[in-house]
Design goal:
By secondary structure, the protein is α/β, with parallel strands linked by helices. The chain has 2 domains: 8-231, Spore Coat Polysaccharide Biosynthesis Protein SpsA, Chain A (Alpha-Beta Complex), CATH 3.90.550; 237-370, no CATH class. Helix 9 (237-263) packs antiparallel against helix 10, helix 10 crosses helix 11 and helix 11 (310-338) runs antiparallel to helix 12. Strands 3-2-1-4-7-5-8 form a 7-stranded mixed sheet, with helices on both faces. Strands 6-9 form a two-stranded parallel ribbon. The chain contains 12 helices and 9 strands. The structure holds guanosine-5'-diphosphate-alpha-D-mannose and manganese (II) ion. Guanosine-5'-diphosphate-alpha-D-mannose (GDD) binds at residues 13-15, 17, 44-46, 75-77, 80, 97-99, 101, 144, 161, 163, 207, 212-214.
């Protein structure tokens, strides 16, 4: 690597990892020096009673590039990592565990994915081809798999729970990272600004020294964190779109019913009109109202597109809605009149299929055209 190789900041959160310091720091330095990667090592320690900070201190003569930051407030793994980002002075940051569960040999590859291959984030991944986990009982694998599945709509990364990942500082520069966000990589993947994520296969080894700090409350924290991330504007847009569409249908039908009750000829027979054109008028009004409702929610929440021109977005969104409406009527007409989807189960099946199809069209039109950034 040339002389102008970007500098790597290695951030290691610790709590009671005294025994692991004399193992991980020399190994890291040896791997990084061999590859000619300029680096600093920052141990983010939560004032561990076992003397982790002292252990780092006594290594500093041999490895002046390593230092320990002792944190006395706001303790916890995620806040320690976020504080570590503030301490870091490098061009690329990497976070890893102290207990050698994350192989130091993978660090240069993760560094190069960003320094050379143009990735913005690289993840040491257990679930990508070639990765794995050593010595984990079935139950822990099962829980880990379930937890990863629940995050699936939020990111395409196969191992968003990994605590081993590197990134460019720009990814998180303006991201509203919450230290309470329990899985910090997942937090970064949902809130960060990036284009390319590269996964590097790793084999996760259970720790040999010291003990795991992550107790039983972690599952509750994780579920809370997931909930926050699903609510975050712009995350999991297809799910939000479906949800908004559902509320839009309620708004549409609710308003139509209300108009028929208030303005119809006979509130006991909502479809009695002196003039059927009134019915179509009320239908149009509630449709317009529902489209507007959907627009507002999709703009700010589903697609987080509040910065774009609202009137242009509205025009496009409305156009998509009208086209989708026409397609829906056309297809239903076809199904009933030409293909004979009449009567109790057949007609309903046709309706479900047509609505599913039109929803996808609506979604793509919104995402790729109306709210395109
Ligand atoms: N500063 C700080 N504060 N560090 C902490 C704290 C804390 O409250 N709790 C844990 N750490 C440090 C540990 O010292 C270790 O370096 C690292 O965070 C991971 O903690 P472990 O206790 O070894 O966690 P684990 O092995 O169960 O979990 C690992 O696997 C998960 C994926 O299954 C970690 O890598 C997680 O980051 C990862 O998500
Ligand atoms: Mn561990």
């Amino acid at each position: 690597m040339g002389r102008l190789a970007p500098m790597l900041s290695v951030i290691i959160p610790t709590f009671n990892e005294k025994e692991n310091m004399p193992l991980i720091i020399p190994r890291l330095v040896s791997v990084l020096e061999e590859e000619g990667i300029p680096h600093e090592i920052i141990v983010m320690d939560d004032d561990s009673p076992d003397g982790t900070a002292k252990a780092v201190g006594s290594l500093q003569k041999r490895f002046p590039q390593a230092r320990c930051v002792v944190r006395k407030e706001n303790k916890g793994l995620s806040p320690a990592v976020i504080d570590g980002y503030r301490e870091a002075r490098g061009d690329i940051y990497i976070v890893m565990d102290a207990d050698l569960s994350h192989p130091v040999e993978a660090v240069p590859g993760m560094y190069r994915a960003i320094a050379k291959d143009g990735a913005d984030i690289s993840v040491g991944s257990r679930h990508t081809k070639g990765g794995g986990i050593e010595n984990w009982p079935f139950m822990r694998r099962f829980i880990s798999f379930g937890a990863a599945m629940m995050a699936r709509p939020l990111t395409s990364c196969s191992d968003p729970m990994s605590g081993f990942f590197a990134l460019r500082p720009e990814v998180i520069k303006d991201a509203p990272l919450k230290p309470r966000g329990y899985k910090i990589l997942l937090e970064v993947l949902v809130k960060g600004r990036y284009n390319k994520v590269k996964e590097i296969p790793i084999t996760f080894k259970d720790r040999e020294l010291g003990e795991s700090k992550l107790g039983s409350k972690v599952m509750i924290y994780y579920l809370q964190h997931l909930f926050q991330l699903y609510m975050f504007p712009g995350s999991a847009p297809f799910i939000k779109f479906l949800f908004v569409g559902g509320t839009g249908m309620v708004v549409d039908l609710g308003l139509l019913t209300l108009l028929l009750i208030l303005l119809g000829d006979n509130k006991f027979d909502l479809l009695s009109f002196r003039d059927i054109r009134f019915f179509h008028l009320y239908q149009g009004v509630s449709f317009l109202y529902a489209v507007t409702w959907n627009f507002v929610w999709n703009r700010y929440w589903t697609f987080d597109a509040g910065k774009g021109s609202g009137s242009r977005q509205y025009l496009k969104f409305f156009t998509v809605a009208i086209i989708a409406l026409c397609i829906r009527s056309g297809l239903l007409y076809l199904a009933v009149e030409e293909l004979g989807f009449k009567g109790m189960p057949l007609y309903h099946i046709a309706v479900v299929i047509v609505i599913a199809f039109v929803t996808v069209i609506n979604y793509l039109g919104s995402k790729l055209w109306a709210f395109k950034k």
